[in-house]
Amino acid sequence: MLLDFDPLKKYSGILVHPSSLPGGSYCGTFGNSVKDWIELLSIYKINTWQFLPLSPTDSLGSPYSSPSSFALNPWFLDVNELIESNYIEVSDQVKNFQLNIGSSNSFQFNIADELSKMIGNLLIDSWELQSFDKKNQFYIWCENNSWVNDFSVFMTLKEKFNFSAWWNWPEEFKYKNKLAIERWKKNNTRSILKSKLIQWHVDRQWLNIKKFAEIKGIRLIGDLPFYVSKDSVDVWSNKSLFSISHDGELYFQSGVPPDYFSSTGQLWGTPVYSWEKHKGTDFEWWKKRFKRQFELVDILRLDHFRALAGYWRVEGKAKDAIKGNWINSPGKELLTSLKDFLKVENLPIIAEDLGIINQDVVDLRRQFGLPGMKILQFAFDGNEDNPYLPKNINGNNWVVYTGTHDNATTLSWWNDLEKTIKETIQKEFFLANNPSWELIELGMKTQANLFIAPIQDILCLDDSSRINKPGTTKNNWKWKINTSLSEIEPFLKKYGELGKKYKRV
């Protein structure tokens, strides 16, 4: 069900990834702890929960560089629900594993992977014991989620070849030779079934969470990366749709020119789209991608929305993003086709329109009535025309944030500001005593349809709790709240009361 915001009302929300929530099998998982979180949001009238992509991560833990645009992260599997529903038997190995993980404000990817493998083995060991009805549910799910076929083959091949990139595989697999793939499937039925079972269960558990959120009146905002990873099943299975050779050599890659985050720009190493191919299929791949996401969430934040108007294209072998060209995209055609396909009057999409934004990006967003984003941490550069200043946020079709997952926490942002800038902010906005909550209140006051604060700002945490720092590859994506929900509850209550004060229902 696609939910629209009522343009005559105002809302508030919290940004936190499920993996960061307390409880769970190891990191935050799709079990009762997430339902407890949603229950608290409902109690305190915090009606929106935003999170990062739910997809599997790359080796560095990034959900923005996933091996699949359709799959879910196995780390989110909840062991307790699987045991209670008799999908797996109680395992001493898993029990001992969980007892020894301890309490920390971060989790390790290799440990999360290890637990996922244990659960996968338990699922396959118990498969023959499952009832006809449960097996039938699984087979129906596989029919309705045809993406899982290529995904399970892709992931079992990666495991076979020591998780090397697909372009380093033997030729018959690199080129996805049909006969070779069929032989592989016949000779690896157990591994492929295990991969499918994991996806079925994590999907089933999440949809249960989604239904619970709907009952409680909580809207779920997901996140869709604009580009997909070069080393993904999406590219491996659809090479003609991307600027890449069959050997994995990039013709052109994506990125952005120098900006707020980097003096050399950001080079993402993902292939740009072969847009003529997409147009020739009436954007079939995109439609499937969005359809899948709207099965999982109510609203999508489309990362790097500006690339729908024009994208920064860099040579495939470039070492930085300084030299490149802006290339026009068929964003209007894509969004029009998507509206028709989804049969909606208004696309439930938030346009991440940060960075270098030209008039064509603004026009595209407005044409489709999509809310844009405003980041308060960007507002205070001394420029009275700064578009992020609250007084310059005109109208209500915006989502205002203190900061996003890419920003410093507000506490560290404040502590790192130059003295003269602090003095100016203190004089005009009275930010001084508690910068995190004062910036939150500043956002609540705006006319924006939706205000969202990262959980780190609500808890007044510094950058030791930051989830991501762009341009770095270490210590990202692994932060986890190491206190209980009961200890967090007073902060949620305060946030909810502030929302009520500013009529954010």
Note the topology.
Elements: E1 11-15, H1 32-43, E2 48-50, H2 79-84, H3 92-99, H4 109-125, H5 132-144, H6 147-160, H7 171-174, H8 178-187, H9 189-215, E3 219-224, H10 233-237, E4 252-256, E5 266-271, H11 275-280, H12 284-296, E6 299-302, E7 310-315, E8 325-328, H13 331-342, E9 349-351, H14 359-367, E10 372-375, E11 398-401, H15 410-416, H16 419-429, H17 435-445, E12 450-454, H18 455-458, H19 485-501
Q: Tell me the name of the CATH homologous superfamily.
A: Glycosidases
Main beta-sheet strand count, sense and barrel state: 8 strands, parallel
Find the structural class using helix and strand composition.
alpha/beta
CATH topology: TIM Barrel
CATH architectural name: Alpha-Beta Barrel
Using DSSP, what is the number of strands? 12
Low-confidence stretches: none
Radius of gyration: 23 Å
Total domains, how many? 1
Continuous helix count: 19
Shape: globular
Strand order of the largest sheet: 9-6-3-2-1-12-11-10
**Distance, first to last CA:** 21 Å
Please state the oligomeric state of the protein chains shown: single chain
CATH class: Alpha Beta
Helix content: 40-55%
The average pLDDT is 94
